[in-house]
Specification:
binds ligand HQG; Arc Repressor Mutant, subunit A; alpha+beta; ADP-ribosylation fold; globular; 6 helices
């Protein structure tokens, strides 16, 4: 870890979403971690954090990945968790008619056969923005945008949640609700 701003931001994502135990950090069910404990735990693995650095990371995240509690003592990732300690109680909401998911072309056959599955994370992640979906897909290779018939899913009993940073979450998307944009 070279303690660059980007590395520290990825490190915070990793411990707050996936492996708090890697630095002996406790997350409550809503994902909150004590900031002093985060700084101490980070130090034990050579990551130099401070309140100032953490505040900069939180405020500079364009995707608003993190949130600091009203009293300033705690921090959490608002979505994207795989940690079993976290079981966030997101508000359940009626989604728009369509939501979008960006993925890599090499995953397409599997997705069209099995649907979108959460993998290690707690939810499938969807967005209202096609361009954001495209950027998400690009992380894994050549991007393809999938349009999800979220309103039809909702009317058929699937639950949808929206995180504080406007990422939509659902447990899975069966293939019949998925269309590649080229097909639509
Ligand atoms: C794919 C970013 C094969 C899925 C974003 C994705 C997001 C399948 C990958 C957040 C599949 C999982 C999460 C199936 C799904 N067969 N592949 N049946 N079902 N997949 O990273 O949604 O920058 O766990 O398409 O903005 O890509 O980190 O999920 O490509 O909100 O804040 O399996 O991460 O936010 O990858 O990204 P991920 P995701 P941050």
């Amino acid at each position: 870890m070279d303690n660059s701003f980007e590395d520290l931001s990825k490190f915070i994502s990793y411990v707050l979403r996936h492996k708090p135990e890697s630095i002996g950090l406790l997350l409550d069910v809503e994902g909150w971690a004590n900031i002093d404990s985060l700084i101490r735990g980070a130090e034990s693995v050579g990551a130099s954090l401070s309140y100032e650095i953490i505040n900069n990371i939180v405020s500079s995240s364009a995707k608003k990945r993190f949130e600091i509690s009203g009293d300033g003592n705690c921090i959490r990732a608002v979505q994207g968790h795989s940690s079993e300690s976290v079981k966030r109680n997101y508000p359940e909401l009626q989604p728009p008619v369509f939501l979008y998911h960006g993925t890599a072309t090499r995953f397409l056959d599997s997705i069209l056969e099995h649907g979108l599955i959460p993998g290690a994370r707690h939810h499938v992640h969807l967005t209202q923005s096609e361009s954001l979906a495209c950027n998400v897909g690009r992380r894994y290779g050549k991007s393809v945008i999938l349009r999800v018939g979220s309103q039809d899913m909702y009317l058929n009993g699937f639950k949808f949640f929206k995180a504080e940073n406007d990422v939509w979450l659902t447990s899975l998307v069966p293939p019949q609700y998925i269309h590649t944009l080229a097909d639509s």
